[in-house]
Amino acid sequence: MNPIFADIPTTIFETMSRLARETGAVNLGQGFPDDPGPLDVRQKAAEAVVDGWNQYPPMMGIPELRQAAAAHYQRFHGIDLDWEQEVMITSGATEALADSLLALIEPGDEVVLFQPMYDAYLPLVKRAGGVPKFVTLKPPHWRLREEDLRAAFSKRTRAVLFNNPLNPSASVFPREDLELLGRFLVEFDAVAICDEVWEHVIFDGLRHQPLIGLPGLRERCIKIGSAGKIFSLTGWKVGLVVAAPSIMRVLAKAHQFVTFTTPPNLQAAVAYGLGKDDGYYTGMRAEMQAARDRFTAGLKASGFTVLPSQATYFVNVDLGEGADDVAFCDRLVREAGVAAIPVSAFYAQNHVRSVVRFCFAKRDATLDEATKRLRAFAGR
Length: 380
What we know:
The protein has 380 residues and is α/β, with parallel strands linked by helices. 44% of the residues lie in helices and 15% in strands. Strands 2-8-7-6-5-3-4 form a seven-stranded mixed β-sheet, with helices on both faces. A four-stranded antiparallel β-sheet has the order 9-10-13-12.
C-alpha cells in the first residue's frame, strides 16, 4: 500500500469523536453546524433532483453556477471574471486543492505550507510529489514574518498553500501580510493555491480580501471557495474555483480525471444561493458571531484565556507555556464531558502545544451545556 496514506495514524477528529460518543460528551471538536442550512436553498436542490437534469452535467460545471460564481465574486470582492475561462466547479474544496497540486507541481517541486494547517494539505502535497517547506505561525495573532518566508522559499518553490481566513487559528491575515506574501510569489515565480472557504464566515465588520484581487497577482493565484461553508451545508461538497485562463486550462484537465463533475441538483441550488440578497450573508454572520460571543463569555467566566476569533466556526483557548494540549483534551472529554481538538494536531513540526480549539457553530442549549461542564471542570 502507498505509505503516504497507509502510515497516516488515526486522526484526532476520529479519536475525539469516538471518546465523545463513549463518554456522552458534548462534541465541540468537529467543525459542522447544528443548523440544517437555509431552507430555500435546500428546497432548490430537492426540486432540481426531481424536475431537473440528473445525467452528466458539463465537466467545468453548469453554466448557471459558473455565471453565478463570477457575479458573486464581482459583487462581494470586486473581481471581474470571465466565467467561461476562469471559473470551474469541483466536488468540494478538497478536490480543488488536489486538482491544483496535481496540475501545478512535478516531483521535487517545493510547496510552502503555513502551520497550523488543514489536515489534508500535507498528504496531498506528498502524493503529488511535492516537497513540503513549513512556515510556523504562532499565537495570539498568527502573523506572517518576512524572515520566516525567506527561510521557506527557494528557487525550487513552485506553489504555496495559503488558507485565509485561517482554520484552525480562526484568524484573518491583514492586507500587509497579503502584500508581503505577494512579493515573495513574484520574486520566486510561484503560484498561491488560496483556500478561502471561510470567506463569508467572518466577524466584527471585517471584509475578506482575496489574494487574487491584489495588484499583480491575478496570474499567480488559484482561488478556492466552498458552498458548504457559505450555506452551512458541509455535506454538499461543491467547490468554487477561480484562476486565470493559463492556469485554469491545466486545472480543468486535472479535475476531469479526478471526479469529472459534481451533482447537478446541488450545482443548481448553489447557483440560486449565491444570488441571495445581502440579508442572508449579514444574517448568517450575525448568528455565528452571536454564538461565538455567547461561548466566549462562558470560556472567560470559567477562567480560560481566549484567543481572538475573527472568522470560521472556531474559538481557541491558550493554556499557557508548558501546557500539553493533547493531554488536556483527553482529560477534558473524560472528566468534563466536553470534546475539543488540540491544535498541535495541525502541525507537522515545531508544534505549538498550548492551544485548544472549540467549535461554537452549535445551538445555544449545546453551548450552554458545554459551558456549564467547563465551569465545573475549572472549579475542580
